């Protein structure tokens, strides 16, 4: 079973008012669904759930009033300001079952001197066993030259995982950073784009002779 365990209670009250009351009591409303079962509305402990969901694609053992279920978080709704968890959608899974999830891209290594890497896809989609879901996918840019593109087909998947996205999609690009435009030296002669003040009397029309 998973190392992350959360107690859960069946929820019988619904609506925004009930949800607010739960959150004031440091509880989180959630729904558990999957395997063709009727969605089950449950309540989770706030602090323990927050700690568990720090692990991306974490496998969680739910103790729903004495019945244990394996689940992963499919959607986490947070307050846009306080970033507190407001609601969680949990997907029922079984040991050995394969599921499709989003996994964060993590770049490792150093590209060739004078180059930088740009992450074109912050996350990718993969299929893996529910009990062996990676938290991140590492993409090595070690020694890669400018102009190199790491595509979906180039990714090295963990054992048992399969890339489920577009194999031609660009994940990381190696490029040369744009050179910063040097600011002209103030008052310097001959610097393109800098107008120098005219010398005193230069450019003035001659005075009429008496």
UniProtKB/TrEMBL annotation:
InterPro entries referenced in this protein's UniProt entry, alphabetically: Rbsml_bL25/Gln-tRNA_synth_N, Ribosomal_bL25/Gln-tRNA_synth, Ribosomal_bL25_b-dom, Ribosomal_bL25_C, Ribosomal_bL25_long, Ribosomal_L25_dom, Ribosomal_uL5_bac-type
Subunit structure: Part of the 50S ribosomal subunit; part of the 5S rRNA/L5/L18/L25 subcomplex. Contacts the 5S rRNA. Binds to the 5S rRNA independently of L5 and L18.
Keywords per UniProt: Ribonucleoprotein, Ribosomal protein, RNA-binding, rRNA-binding
Any GO CC annotation of this UniProt entry: ribosome
Family: Belongs to the bacterial ribosomal protein bL25 family. CTC subfamily.
Function of the protein: This is one of the proteins that binds to the 5S RNA in the ribosome where it forms part of the central protuberance.
Region of interest: Disordered: 182-210
UniProt domain Large ribosomal subunit protein bL25 beta: residue ranges: 98-178
CDD domains per record: Ribosomal_L25_TL5_CTC
Source organism of the structure: Actinotalea lenta
Pfam families xrefs: Ribosomal_L25p, Ribosomal_TL5_C
Organism lineage string: Bacteria, Bacillati, Actinomycetota, Actinomycetes, Micrococcales
Domain Large ribosomal subunit protein bL25 L25: 6-90
Gene: rplY
Acidic residues: compositionally biased ranges: 195-210
Domain of life: Bacteria
Protein name, UniProt field: Large ribosomal subunit protein bL25
